[in-house]
Structures are given as structure tokens and as C-alpha cells.
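Bench notes, afternoon.
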Amino acid sequence: MKMLRLCLVAALLGLFALPAGAESARAVIAFAQDTMKNDFRKAQVFEVRDAVAEHPDLSFVYSDAQGKTSLLIQQIEDFIRQKVDVLVVGTNDENAVVPVISKAHKAGVKVIVLDRGVNTTDYTTFINSDNIQIGAIGGEYIAERLGGKGVALLFEGIQTADVTQLRSKGFMDEVAKHKGIQVIKRTGNYLRKDAVIEMEKLLADGVKVNAIFSESDSMLSGVRVVLKRHGIDPSSIVMVGCDYVSEAQEAIRNDAQSGSVLFPLGGKMAVEVALKILAGEPVPKHVSIPVKLVTKENVDEVDPIF
């Protein structure tokens, strides 16, 4: 049976079947995720898992590519061979995965591209938020807080991901309206440890910034660790993150972070779309989930994504 075959290859290819006894399920929803080391990406998988668990006629499997594009492609290949019914894909490279996603689509697998885009239309639905708007929100807020003057640090995510390029564009386009703001860029790959390394380098070089826009809250968490280690009060710098996780909510409450752009996980939406697909209902090619800025003014009114 379909689920039994999936379980047999799980140990070898980093695939995980949930829940136990799901071999009697009528349909399989698989999630090929690029990494589970990133808190946001892990939470996406678990949100899909929990939403699928509410439907006893469905089963769920996922894979963790550990940030390796070649492994992600291999895992998607395996899901194609197992003939899963719906494949949710989270990628770290908008180009490298195109051939295998096209292969899945042409093989009849319903493909939902979640969060990060791909340079093909060979999929069923793309679910994301407006990443240019996310960057613009961060840029507008920082420009206003700085009064149009100062040095802003842009902490970028994975360079091969479209979300990074779009958030950076939105931010840079907005800040460009203020000639008195200088922007320096560093890459943190959406990871705390990478942000820690880059922030330590900046301080060692004597670089001082007035504001930071981090394309994820996890990177901003790493920044705060470094600032505190060097006796720098985080509240002395205007800092805006993205995602709006519980850690960011607490930091905003404590004035250790100025704001965060709410970026929904999209897992529940992916399952809603998958259910329509499995029921034979038409689904839109693109689904956009709204975003908004959370600051101390509304921090207690908005629930964090996890």
C-alpha cells in the first residue's frame, strides 16, 4: 500500500510518516521541506501535520533536506515515485528545484508551492505573502523612526530564495526615498548562528548602526545576543524583524525589538487548498496571505505565529 511503501524508505531518505497506522488513509499529503533547523520552516511542517490530523481520511509524511538542495530534489523524486496525492514544497532555491517540480506536476502529483517561489508555472497552487510589501513595511517604519537619517543594517536571508530578493527590494526601494539613510547589507541565511557570526564581525570592525531590518526574527534574536554580549542596549537601535514569533513578541514588549512584520506560516492554508484539490474542486493558481506590522502599540492584540 502507498503509506507502507513510504515508510520503508523513510529511514534512508529522511522521510517521516505521521501518524502511525495511517496506512488505511485514502490520500497522502507530503511536505518536502528544505530544512527543519530553521524554526519557521519547522513550524510550517508541524502546522500542516496538525491540520491534516483533523481529517482521519488523510495521512501525512514529510522530509527534511537539512538545507541541502540536492537532498531536497532526491526527496521530491521519492515522493513522485511513491505517487503521493498532494505535494507541498518549501525550497531554498527558486531555480534548482524547477526540473523536479515540473516532473512532479507532469506526473499528476498536485503540487502546492509554499512561501518561497519557483521559476516555473508547473504547479497547482502557489501560497505566499507579498514579500515586497514586507520589505517596504520595514523600510517605511525604520525611515520614520530615524527621521530620514542614519545607518541601517539589512540582514538578508538565503540569497537563492526569492523571498530574500523580494524583501530586500521592498526595503531598498522604500529607503531610497530618504537620501539621508545609508544601508549596509549582511547575509544571515535566516539562522541565528549565522546572524551572530556576521554581527560579531561588524562590531569587531567598529561598525555602528542606528537601525536593523532583519528578514526573519530568528536572525534578530542572534543580533540581540551579540549586542548584549558587548554591553549594547538593544533598545538603542531601531530593530524590525519578520515572522512575528513568540520570542519577538516578548522582545517587543520589553523594548528589545521595535517591531516585526507578521508573516503567517501558511500551513493551514496549504491544507485547506489540498482538501479542495482532493475533492476535485478548482483552486486558484496563487493565494496571497495578508501581512502587517506589529509594534508595542498592538503587540498584545496580535497572536504570534508560534
